[in-house]
Input
Amino acid sequence: MSVNDPQNARLRLALSALGHLSGALHVALFAPRGPGLTLVANHDVDHVAMELATAAWARKRERLERGEVLPYGGATIWPLFDGPTLVAFVYLSVASDDFPTAEMRRLGADIVERLRGVNVPTATTAYVARGMSLAEAQEEAVRDAMITVLERLNGNATAAAAVLGISRETLYSRADRLRIDIPAFRKRTRRGR
Output
C-alpha cells in the first residue's frame, strides 16, 4: 500500500473520524508483523506516539492479543480483530476507560474490512525488492530500526532496548554485530562541546 493509494486515504479518513469521536489529536493504525509493527496509516502522529505504540506491543502483546483495550502512557491502545485474528491496533493519544464506543466499534469494523486482503509491505520486503537476499534484508531492517530508535532516544540503551522489545545485552550484541556505535548517538551534554 503506497502513501497515495486510495485504500490508505480511506484508512486515514477513518482514523481521523476515530480521533474526532475520541477527542484524540493523534491516531495511528499499526499492524503486527512478527515481533515488530508496521505503521499502516496515521493522522498527525509524532515519534512519541510511535515509541509508545512500539513499547506497548513489546510489553503488552499478550493482553492485546486477548482483545484488551489498554490505557498506556497517557494513550489508549485498541486491538482490532478479523474473526479470532488480531490484524491491527489503533493508537489514540487520549486515555479513557470508555473506549471503544458503539460508533468507534463501527469504524473499527470498517477499518478491519478495508484491511482484508491488503498486503502491508514490511521493511524487509522493500529491501528484497531492491535485490538483497532475505538474510541481508532482514539484517538491514533490524539495523535501520535500531538506528532509528537510538537516534530518537539519544543513545539511551536501556530505553532503546525496551522500545525494541529486547534486553540491553541483546541490544549491545546486535549493535556490535551490525557495527552500530551506541555511544555515538548520545548527545553531548558537557559545556563547550
